[in-house]
Specification:
about 425 residues, 20 helices
Length: about 425
């Protein structure tokens, strides 16, 4: 009778996550590794769809007390999670459970995004940034080593590749292209995207990207679409498939795309830093991905399990393994150093590009990141307005003016809801 009793004593918690494919396989492997390292706790990972679907499922479950202990929430959900009172601050949890976590070891540009009043609210988990993937065979055939550092020179390269008949698709736009090509474009070039330090300094922030060179960037992308340089989609193929098949020469996408590119691309490929405008000292790119939040309303033993799992995830060995498996950046300096000491970046140099891009400059108010309330609602508005540009219904300036006006209404709604919180 001893064995069943022991099994019953094990505390089980759920972690709801949003990644699929090869990254989900790595998540399940990580969970299995944790479950075998000790006998007290068991984590069960459940995928609830994409980020938006997982977040919506969590909200619905929380309202009826059926929520998981841990939720993976994208950085766009940061303010919603912060002001919801539904989460236990991760530093508070770890301290209460007796863990001496060295928060200063977390890589600053990543960790700072999740820090409030000097303390982390969530554990950075699958952190990423956009890098420029390229077909090295196409660039070599056109006489280039790699994509140029400035946007004007990069444009010349893409037109040369097309004009020489090397490729009919110079670039494919990812479904989330504004993340790297508009938001990331702004942080790299140190342009303000919103007031109040892009929302870091208060809920009174307003979008202002319609007053910066983001307008010219949208005009540039529109020109590339009209001239056949950019392919939006085609023949049922995703952006990843269009690049990995060798159809398109470049692709601005997350460093986490390594898992797919390494497995699927059948040509000489590489990646490099995102371009910047001429005459501009490039700053840091913006982070993406998600963090692990611990939710309120759980028993003490469940919090003990959550803390043990978070401690496991944050270990240098786990972080190094996770980064190597997926392409996401390691979130601690110790993990970064471990990977470097093991020669990982010498063997896989493109895996270090995201880290170099995230850490190459002291963060400014414009390059630290972005915190905007109800960001997912604004995102849908922005995509709708940009579609009007691609289909010749609006100019870039008119579309961005409209998205800013509509976006600022969304910000005011969020501010009014959480005023005084």
């Amino acid at each position: 009778m001893a064995l069943p009793a022991l099994a019953q004593d094990k505390t089980t918690i759920e972690w709801w996550y949003a990644n699929g494919g090869r990254i989900e396989e790595a998540i399940q492997d990580m969970i299995a590794d944790f479950n075998t390292t000790q006998d007290d706790f068991e984590v069960v990972g459940v995928r609830k769809g994409n980020y938006e679907e997982t977040f919506a499922a969590m909200i619905a479950a929380y309202r009826v007390g059926q929520h998981p202990t841990i939720i993976q929430a994208t950085e766009r959900s940061f303010l919603t999670m912060l002001y919801s009172d539904a989460a236990v601050p991760v530093n508070q949890l770890m301290a209460e459970q007796g863990y001496d976590t060295d928060w200063s070891d977390f890589i600053a540009p990543v960790a700072d995004f999740y820090v409030v009043d000097g303390a982390p609210a969530a554990l950075p988990f699958n952190s990423s940034t956009g890098i420029m993937w390229f077909n090295a065979d196409h660039f070599e055939a056109a006489g280039f080593d790699k994509p140029a550092e400035t946007w004007d020179e990069f444009e010349e390269q893409l037109y040369a590749i097309k004009d020489q008949g090397i490729s009919e698709c110079g670039m494919v736009l990812n479904s989330d292209f504004p993340w790297s090509l508009l938001e990331g474009y702004s942080t790299i070039n140190d342009y303000p995207f919103g007031t109040e330090a892009n929302g870091f300094d208060g809920l009174g922030t307003e979008y202002v990207y319609n007053t910066t060179p983001v307008v010219q960037q949208v005009e540039r992308l529109k020109r590339w679409i009209d001239d056949g340089i950019i392919q939006l989609s085609g023949n049922g193929m995703s952006p990843a498939q269009l690049f990995n098949s060798g159809t398109c020469s470049t692709w601005s996408a997350s460093t986490a795309s390594h898992a797919g590119v390494e497995a699927e691309a059948q040509f000489n490929w590489s990646a490099t830093l995102q371009p910047h405008e001429a005459g501009v000292e490039p700053h840091n790119s913006n982070i993406g991905g998600a963090a692990l939040w611990v939710l309120q309303g759980k028993a003490d033993e469940e919090y003990a399990a959550a803390a043990a799992f978070i401690d496991f995830v944050a270990q240098p060995e786990t972080q190094a393994w996770w980064s190597e498996q997926t392409g996401y950046v390691p979130v601690t300096n110790a993990a970064y150093e471990l990977m470097a000491d093991q020669g990982f970046f010498e063997e896989y140099p493109t895996r270090e590009i995201a880290l170099l891009q995230l850490t190459r400059h002291e963060p400014t108010e414009n390059s630290r990141g972005m915190r905007f309330g109800n960001s997912n609602q604004w995102w849908a508005v922005l995509l709708e307005e940009l579609e009007a540009v691609w289909t010749d219904q609006k100019s870039a300036q008119d579309a961005l003016d409209s998205s800013v006006a509509r976006g600022n209404e969304i910000l005011r709604q969020f501010e009014q809801l959480h005023a005084g919180s």
